[in-house]
Specification:
mainly alpha, two-stranded parallel ribbon, 8 helices
Length: 162
């Protein structure tokens, strides 16, 4: 999302969920990945020839391709700290009330050091080191999303009552 889009979302009370996918949090990775694979669609077409509709196979093969391309220097290393950089950017842009976590562990290519949910405490620790207060951290870690969901549920009930 552009900064203007994020500001517009915040003006309506919304929350941007920071997705951890490497190509979303690092532009140089996205560009290099497009160059290496010919794009996501081309990559999936290639892998489907090997895996068919087997999603486990697709995920495994994608991971192998990504690791090989990184080892060969065709893709840059992207570390989990980029997630925190994006959180910090949105907080500075729109405030802590408008940012949350959008992990996407079920199919995205995760940055180094954020392989699964057991690594999530790193984000909390990094925010604490940056000086974020407990209330803002709670909002970022899920409070903001719950607020928006509660508001949506309230509107839904109001609309159903009409």
């Amino acid at each position: 999302m552009t900064d203007d889009m994020i500001k517009a979302l915040a003006a309506k009370g919304g929350v941007i969920q920071i997705n951890y996918e490497k190509s979303f949090i690092d532009e140089s990775y996205r560009q290099a990945s497009e160059k290496v694979s010919g794009g996501v669609v081309a990559m999936f077409d290639q892998l489907k020839k090997v895996c068919g509709d087997d999603e486990e196979c697709l995920g495994k093969k994608m991971n192998e391709m990504e690791k090989q391309a990184t080892a060969e220097g065709k893709l840059p290393h992207v570390t989990w700290e980029k997630i925190v950089d994006h959180i910090d950017h949105v907080v500075k842009l729109a405030g802590a009330d408008h940012v949350g976590l959008g992990s996407d562990f079920d199919g995205a290519t995760m940055p180094e050091g954020m392989d699964d949910c057991t690594h999530l405490p790193k984000i909390t620790e990094a925010l604490m080191r940056k000086g974020y207060g407990d209330d803002d951290i709670r909002k970022i870690l899920g409070g903001n999303l719950l607020r928006v969901m509660e508001q949506a549920e309230k509107v839904s009930h109001e609309m159903q009552a009409q």
